[in-house]
Fold this sequence. Notes:
Blueprint: H1 3-19, E1 26-27, H2 43-46, E2 52-55, E3 63-68, H3 73-89, E4 94-99, H4 108-119, H5 124-133, H6 135-138, H7 146-155, H8 160-168, H9 170-185, E5 190-191, E6 193-196, E7 199-200, H10 207-219
Parallel strand pairs: 3-4
Antiparallel strand pairs: 1-5, 2-4, 3-6, 6-7
Amino acid sequence: MTKNIRLTLALIAAVVLVVSGLLAVNRTDEPRAATTAAGAIDPALLVREDSHRLSTAADGKVTLVEFLDFECESCAAAYPAVKQVLATYSDRITFVVRYFPIPSHPNAELAARTAQAAANQGRFHDMYTQLFDNQTRWGHKEQPQTDLFLGYARTLGLDMQRFQRDLDDPATAARVAKDKTDGEAVGVQGTPTFFLNGRQLTDLRTQDDLVAAIDAALAE
């Protein structure tokens, strides 16, 4: 087999992994942070009081945290698995979403601010869904997709004056940046990155792997 053929096969395999919904990682240049001797992360850095929760378990036994980038194709590939996890486990786990926009994605930070501006009106989950359901329409465009995002806010029936004000508010950008700073502190190098009860899940390949990890945590 020639070198060119080997390279071509490798590229095809990489594309298949993403399209089939595997949890590939979009890397950044941030250094990896050290964990504790037990491999756990400071929970205060993983979940803040104002972190967005898509589900909440009354017993607090299992917490799954995802650092994501709304423009990340691998995050979009993981999105159906996340939806299924939320549907399956509902109130049995706490699922937390943290922002981690990748600098090479031109609208990632704007998308995160869009989600946060919606969150200020109690509609984070709805905007989260809008952004991922429509990612192929707005992702990887060099021009800011502000008008499209404003359209999503109108679709959700948000107060548009407040939404526009919050979208442009430096406090919203600071809120997004705070999540990313926490991600860097706990060793996030790309998206999506998942932590289950304070430990990073590093060997995820399919939805079944994620489900198995959650089931094991619930059984402990």
